[in-house]
């Protein structure tokens, strides 16, 4: 065997694994089917501005070990995500906080008044059974109708009454005038973009780009003692228990001849009649990049949710009972594979944020070196 590990996919999970393996004196070969590293956190410098090519990525975590780990490979800026929601020509602050409540209900000024107004509207829901009921019980019917229903149904391609309640619990709900989208202690964007951070994590690891593991499934595993696989778990097993569902996205980017197009990095478009969910103005992620920020042009990306079919990019796992049952079968099968470990958002079929991904990869590595 030439290598200790064959890493399938050059995204954040395997970059983390590669950094730890290298430091422990283990050798790795990475294969990546795209023509670049970094998976979905890939950023590309276009005319001096770093573009998040697969959607806006803001690193945030409460885990000190994770934060210290990523800071070894990049200097992070102090970016705080404060997106706004746009509907019918009006803007509202996110996540749901006192600024949002006051804008929607002008007579609501104190936290107590906000809680009372929500309770009045939520009274109709006792034990939430789905996303609609969960949302109404958390923020009331007015906010659900304006800021949640349209966005969520576009994003997931199905009615809120058919979606798991948990999805909406990702968002903070606050009774303070604080527009920070995340509750975590640590937050930022790597200065210069994510691709440089991932490059540093891989270090001198050999990487073969434009190489699909599944098209070379017989030969590639012969090269290493173990395989760390971060592609879709159902494709690895040739869909033998059926297809898992994913949600896909389409991105359209335009260059505008102005310095500042929307005044904020992220606008959520919550109306059902607007076909995209978010517009991203990339330069706002790195205001310390003065040349990029002051340039007399800017890039804005529209993010359109899309149904997924084989061959499309699988961005989001769809967490429902059907998929959990199918995933469990694949997971049981995976446990029988002696030399293959399944990791990351696609290999573990989890709605992982970047910090979850890093933590999962650190844990995976710790399991490997366990005496
Ligand atoms: P990936 O990044 O998907 O990497 C897997 C790699 O494996 C890919 O490069 C793929 O091409 C490759 N691959 C797959 N199959 C094969 C094969 N057969 N052969 C070879 N290579 C293969 N998280 C946050 O914390 N904050 C955010 O703001 C945030 N925003 C997001 C926005 C969007 C639109 C999306 C989709 C995700 C967002 N995330 C965010 C989550 C974040 O993208 C993930 O946590 C992280 O990228 C997962 O890393 P990974 O290595 O598991 O997967
Ligand atoms: N959401 C919403 N309105 C918004 C933003 C989010 O209803 O303006 C809901 C939607 O259901 C979404 C979920 O909250 O899927 C989680 O939002 P988040 O911003 O975490 O989504 P992600 O960045 O993972 O796409």
Tell me about this structure.
The protein is α/β, with parallel strands linked by helices. Helix content is 32%, strand content 20%. The chain contains 11 helices and 16 strands. The strands form 4 sheets. A 7-stranded mixed sheet has the order 7-6-12-13-14-11-15. Strand 1, helix 1 and strand 2 form a beta-alpha-beta unit. Helix 1 packs parallel to helix 6, helix 1 packs parallel to helix 11 and helix 4 crosses helix 5. It is globular, with a radius of gyration of 22 Å. Bound molecules: flavin-adenine dinucleotide (FAD) and uridine-5'-diphosphate. Uridine-5'-diphosphate binds next to helix 5.
Q: Which descriptors apply to this entry?
A:
binds uridine-5'-diphosphate, globular, seven-stranded mixed beta sheet, binds flavin-adenine dinucleotide, 32% helix, 11 helices, alpha/beta, 371 residues
What layout of secondary structure does this protein have?
Elements: E1 3-8, H1 12-23, E2 28-31, E3 43-46, E4 49-52, E5 59-61, H2 64-71, E6 84-87, E7 90-93, H3 98-104, H4 111-122, H5 131-156, E8 186-188, H6 194-202, E9 206-208, E10 224-229, H7 233-236, E11 246-256, E12 266-269, E13 278-281, H8 290-294, E14 298-307, E15 316-317, H9 321-336, E16 340-342, H10 344-347, H11 354-369
Parallel strand pairs: 1-2, 1-10, 2-9, 6-12, 10-16
Antiparallel strand pairs: 3-4, 5-8, 6-7, 11-14, 11-15, 12-13, 13-14
Helix pairs in contact: 1-6, 1-11, 4-5
The protein binds flavin-adenine dinucleotide and uridine-5'-diphosphate.
């Amino acid at each position: 065997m030439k290598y200790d590990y064959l890493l399938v996919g050059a995204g954040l999970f395997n970059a983390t694994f590669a950094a730890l393996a290298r430091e422990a004196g283990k050798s790795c070969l990475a294969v990546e089917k795209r023509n670049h590293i970094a998976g979905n956190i890939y950023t590309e410098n276009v005319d001096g501005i770093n573009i998040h090519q697969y959607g806006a990525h803001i690193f945030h975590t409460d885990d000190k070990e994770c934060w210290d780990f990523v800071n070894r490979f990049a200097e992070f800026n102090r970016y705080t995500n404060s997106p706004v929601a746009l509907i019918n020509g009006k803007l509202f602050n996110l996540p749901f906080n006192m600024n949002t409540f006051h804008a929607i209900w002008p007579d609501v000024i104190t936290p107590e008044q906000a809680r009372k107004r929500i309770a009045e509207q939520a009274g109709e829901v006792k034990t939430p059974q789905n996303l609609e009921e969960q949302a109404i019980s958390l923020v009331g019917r007015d906010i659900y109708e304006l800021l949640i229903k349209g966005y969520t149904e576009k994003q997931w391609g199905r009615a809120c009454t058919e979606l798991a309640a948990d999805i909406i619990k990702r968002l903070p709900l606050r009774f303070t005038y604080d527009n920070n989208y995340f509750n975590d202690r640590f937050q930022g964007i790597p200065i210069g973009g994510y691709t440089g951070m991932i490059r540093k994590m891989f270090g001198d690891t050999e990487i073969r780009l434009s190489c699909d593991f599944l098209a070379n499934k017989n030969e590639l595993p012969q090269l290493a003692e173990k395989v760390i696989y971060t592609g879709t778990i159902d494709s690895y097993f040739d869909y033998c228990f059926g297809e898992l569902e994913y949600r896909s996205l389409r991105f359209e980017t335009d260059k505008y001849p102005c310095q500042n197009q929307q005044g904020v990095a992220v606008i959520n478009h919550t109306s059902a009649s607007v076909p995209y969910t978010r517009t991203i103005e990339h330069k706002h992620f790195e205001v310390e990049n003065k040349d990029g920020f002051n340039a007399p042009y800017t890039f804005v990306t529209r993010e359109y949710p899309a149904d997924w079919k084989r061959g499309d990019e699988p961005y989001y796992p769809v967490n429902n009972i059907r998929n959990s049952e199918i995933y469990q079968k694949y997971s049981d099968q995976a446990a029988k594979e002696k030399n293959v470990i399944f990791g990351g958002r696609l290999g573990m079929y989890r709605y992982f944020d970047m910090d979850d991904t890093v933590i999962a990869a650190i844990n995976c590595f710790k399991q490997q070196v366990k005496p």
